[in-house]
Design brief:
CATH class of the largest domain: Alpha Beta
Strand order of the largest sheet: 1-2-3-5-4-6-7-8-9
Helix content: 40-55%
Shape: globular
Strand content: 5-15%
Radius of gyration: 24 Å
Distance between the termini: 37 Å
CATH topology of the largest domain: Rossmann fold
CATH superfamily of the largest domain: Alpha/Beta hydrolase fold, catalytic domain
Oligomer: single chain
Largest sheet: 9 strands, mixed
Length: 434
């Protein structure tokens, strides 16, 4: 009798799983906007995972311009379960890795949908039209995916994203405030210029201790002061890696050194490994290459994220470099306009539009949307983080000493409890933080 019961239980479990797979699979294949559906290996937390290609207008305000296919990953749990909606800011290739799961999905026992950003990964229009790469069109993409998937999923919706994906969360919420119930953007900047001036003073005064910041400055000065030693090393390194640049190697060295403190503090895991200036030149150079190597400025390195630089120049903004402390050691007279000089497609002439960032700031000041911002206090991007007014529908959690890798799972116990109680209140459902 026990064996029969066990067999029955197994068959029931299998049949339920197959029924759920059949349900979401049949639904996806029946939607006219979805042009391909492919089942792929996924995290065992979910019943089944699909890669789908959704037809999107190149310009949602002018559909006559044509369409392209946008890659979306759908990881199914249950029709009535909540949905974690990831508004990726770049390629979503990681979502095809079988073990991938967003940290919010198990906390909420939720389905998971990851939307690749237009003009990244496999989501490119042909022919390429840079004028249609706007926050409004990207938000319209996400809105369209939501409209499709809400035909199937009936639970709460939680949008989330990291860094540029966090920006994407807030821009989408600004333009479509009722699309989701709650938003959780991580380490999301709101820049007010192509070269926002807040990052330099932040790096010079905020992260770490005064001694650590001085050691970083001394390291930078040591490299620049002895460029005749380090330029041959850089030349050999770049030849070995087959890197090419739009600027001279002298300038590449300048920018590697100027970028160094931002890169170091952004990830926050190498601060105690900054070598003493009395270390060997080989040790100093090796450390520079690990933290702030030339691949970032190389033509080969920027190819996969060139769309990001276009967006930064057009609407999202970026950060600048403070060259004044190293003026006598640099080969460049100024770092202004470096984004266009180094990163933008050479035939692209684009002007910065300050309206979206100002409108989003106004939205945050006035909205009733429920948004939970998460930041690391030593992350240079926190210098241009969203300023959040004291309102019941908004909360900003800042991890002391935290970097760009700050997540709910690595917050302090007290902060995790605040996140849990806030999400439970906003979503009116239990949240599992274990």
């Amino acid at each position: 009798m026990k064996q029969l019961f066990l067999i029955f239980s197994i068959l029931l479990t299998v049949s339920i799983a197959l029924a759920q797979q059949s349900g979401i699979g049949q639904f996806l294949k029946a939607q006219p906007e979805i042009k391909s559906v492919e089942e792929i290996p996924g995290n065992n937390f979910f019943t089944v995972t699909y890669k789908i290609m959704v037809e999107q207008a190149i310009d949602h305000s002018h559909p006559e311009k044509g369409a392209f296919l946008q890659r979306v990953f759908v990881a199914d749990k249950a029709t009535t379960a909540p949905v974690v909606f990831i508004t990726e800011g770049y390629s979503a290739s990681y979502a095809a890795i079988p073990r991938y799961i967003n940290e919010l999905s198990p906390m909420l026992n939720a389905n998971q949908i990851c939307v690749e950003h237009r003009y990244f990964g496999e989501s490119w229009p042909e022919p390429l039209d840079w004028t249609s790469l706007t926050v409004r069109n990207a938000a319209a993409d996400q809105h369209r995916v939501l409209e499709i998937m809400k035909r199937y999923y009936t639970g709460k919706w939680i949008s989330t994203g990291i860094s540029k994906g966090g920006q994407t969360v807030v821009y989408h919420r600004w333009l479509y405030p009722d699309d989701v119930d709650v938003s959780v953007p991580y380490v999301a900047p709101l820049n007010f210029g192509v070269e926002d001036r807040r990052h330099g003073p932040f790096i010079a005064n905020v992260p770490g201790t005064a001694g650590q910041r001085q050691k970083i400055f001394d390291f930078q000065a040591e490299i620049l002061r002895n460029r005749t030693v380090y330029l041959p090393k850089l030349k050999s390194f770049c030849e070995q890696k087959k890197y090419t640049f739009r600027i001279s190697l002298d300038e590449v060295l300048d920018y590697c050194v100027l970028e160094y403190p931002f890169a170091l503090w952004q990830w926050g895991n190498l601060v105690d490994q900054v070598p003493d200036v009395n270390a060997s030149p080989d040790s100093l150079f090796e450390h520079l290459m690990i933290v702030s190597g030339p691949s970032y400025f190389a033509i080969e390195g920027m190819e996969s994220i060139k769309s990001f630089f276009v967006q930064a120049r057009h609407e999202l903004g970026y950060y600048g470099y403070d060259t004044r402390p190293f003026k006598k050691y640099l080969s460049i007279k100024t770092a202004r306009n470096y984004l266009s000089k180094i990163f933008l497609p050479e035939d692209l002439n684009i002007k910065y539009d300050k309206k979206p960032s100002k409108e989003v700031r106004k939205f945050i000041d006035t909205t009733d949307a429920r948004i939970l911002f998460i930041y690391g206090a030593w992350d240079p991007w926190f210098a241009s983080g969203f300023e959040v007014p004291q309102k019941n529908n908004l909360l900003r959690i800042v991890k002391a000493g935290g970097s760009h890798s700050t997540r709910i799972n690595n917050l302090t116990s007290d902060q995790k409890e605040v996140v849990r109680t806030t999400l439970e209140k906003w979503l009116e459902m239990p949240v599992n933080m274990e």
